[in-house]
Amino acid sequence: MKRFSNTVSISIHNDIPDIVPYQVFLQIVFRLPEANAKNLVVYRQPSDNGDASYVIQGVRMNSGLHNPVLHSNMLVEMGITTNDDENVLDFIDHYRPDFSIRYYTCESFIFTLINNAFQLSENLDHLIKLRLVVTDLHNFLRFKMGGLLRNEYTTNGPFYKAELLSLDKLHLLKQGIGKYLTFHSFLSTTINKTRALDFINKTEYDQKKQAIVMYVIEMNSQNDTQQLLQPFGNVTVLSCTAHEREILFSIGQVFRIRSIVQNEASQIWTVYLQVLHANETEHLNNLTDYYLSKIVGTETFYNGIQARVNFEPLTITTFVTIGNYYSSVLARNYDKAEFYYQKFLDEELESPDDFDFQNQPGFYYGRVYRLYYSAHSYINLQLARIRCEQKTYVEAAEYNQKAQEACLKISENAGQQTLLAQIYNNLAQIFWGYTQQYDQATRHYLHAIQMDRNNVETFINIGLTQTAAKEYWYALNSFSIALSMIQTRNETDYLSYGLIKRNIGLIYEKSEQGLQALLSYWEAERIYNKSLPSNHEFRQIIRDDIKRVTKIVTRVHDDL
């Protein structure tokens, strides 16, 4: 039973923000549909302004759902051809969401696919390709097997998993005591410590290169303030090995490493893992939700419907969302972002030119038309922003022009106005970056404000341009407006707040007001430390700012 002793990919983190990027990516993947409208339910509901909005929810938790085409497509994406292999054919013909646990625990080729795919935790593309089974396993644990808290489906633990680990990875674990550990695949555990060790294949054990490691997951039954980040459950009755008591933890589970000790007699290393406390889980969930709101936005594109986002229970994401993740401050992998934006246009977007009037209701054409041009406008806008970040302003202007042309094909509504505001905002940044003509950039910013007076990003960008143009008083005023808008909404906008405070610090520094600059920089550092991974470039930049100004202030003080 390999799943009880297979080596699971892990990563170790210093602080809560370091955990966030992978958790955000998982939440996006869990909401990816299988590119088939039959797997979705669309609910029409009135919106606040009197119009109708649409909420799209996946229905893969329907245990009777069966679609051989989806199963075959997943295998093709993973490079498995639908040949005469009876195991492959069995999966294509008989797999259903409720069967996911059994396919995994029987250690079929599906288990091997998942296990091999997650040996490299950074290879997130495999997670997308395997989303059908991964999401089914996760949802089954979440909705049908107990979820996040202990209940009748689980025990208080402890839970055990043994594996052979390289000495290099063992060294990393030792250095990680007190830090956070993320498992990048599903985690099969048992409540029987002796049985966990029995699963180790001693013939593969090389003492010079490996160590036997026993993970012990501790659940404090006397302390209900502890909570798991991802669902888990007792899958024994559904398992192929019903005689083994198996507790399965979903992908992305996070623990804190309490201690690591070695038994001198057996030479076995025991790694004691603690469940996160409620305040840690709350902070992590808040950060994850914050970045999801930034990345997903307020609308999602899918199959002719531009749907309001409602995260629960299974509101969908698309390849556009994956592109947004890769272009976001968390990833900044622009090649990947462009790949998934193009993948959406090529594979998921229905063209109005191909509309089947004979077999589809006529009113559906309007939805397809709006979606087609809304998606093209949005994606070209994102590509323009990427090129602007890369300082290739001519290409940025070309993409921005395409975004505007597509946007103007949509009938006038609030959504079009918001998109046009972003296009003019982007155009102002491109114009300033390429020509350094402040007056021309300001003209485009004014157009953006006319389209959407409540866009915080516009006022921040105006302040950034004014700072670069040495219009410091005007910049402070623009940043003040942006801060007031954030405070009025009573939102926690870490990135905007940190960016504003850092640039106010720059203005004070350039104005030779060192102490005021330090106060702003310290506030920006506090925000970045709370919300960004420890290796993020923004955190290094603000540390450099503080170091630089501290030297100046100290030198001035010494001169006095």
Automatic annotation (TrEMBL):
Domain of life the protein comes from: Eukaryota
Native source organism of the sequence: Rotaria sordida
Gene3D superfamilies: Tetratricopeptide repeat domain, Toxin ADP-ribosyltransferase, Chain A, domain 1
Name of this chain's protein: Tetratricopeptide repeat protein
Signal peptide range: none
InterPro entries assigned: TPR-like_helical_dom_sf, TPR_rpt
